[in-house]
Amino acid sequence: MVEHSLRTLDRVFDAVSDSTRRSILDRLRSGPLTVTRLAEPYAMSLNAVSKHVKKLESAGLIRREIRGREHFCQLDAARFETAMDWMGRYSKFWSDRLDALEKHLIQKRKRAKQ
Description:
By secondary structure, the chain is an alpha+beta fold. It has helices at residues 2-16, 19-28, 35-39, 46-58, 78-88, 91-113; strands spanning 33-34, 62-67, 70-75.
């Protein structure tokens, strides 16, 4: 179970580490698109965009449906939940750190006024 979750995290973070793939995910938020439509705004070949799509698909972030000659891609954000759960473990840490910073700055301001 833990091993599976770690592999899932690795795939998700690896997939979203690239700006083109993040852009593709953003575009799919509004609904399914063909790979050809996904490729339109990028200055790269259809083959290069297909490689990005395959990476996102292998991470489980998108689903692809083939209808005749067209490949439709759709966002599947369920895997993001695993990543959000993992990142959520650190929210208390960062909240505590920000609280400590705020306290420090308030004390520093008080000392400066004296």
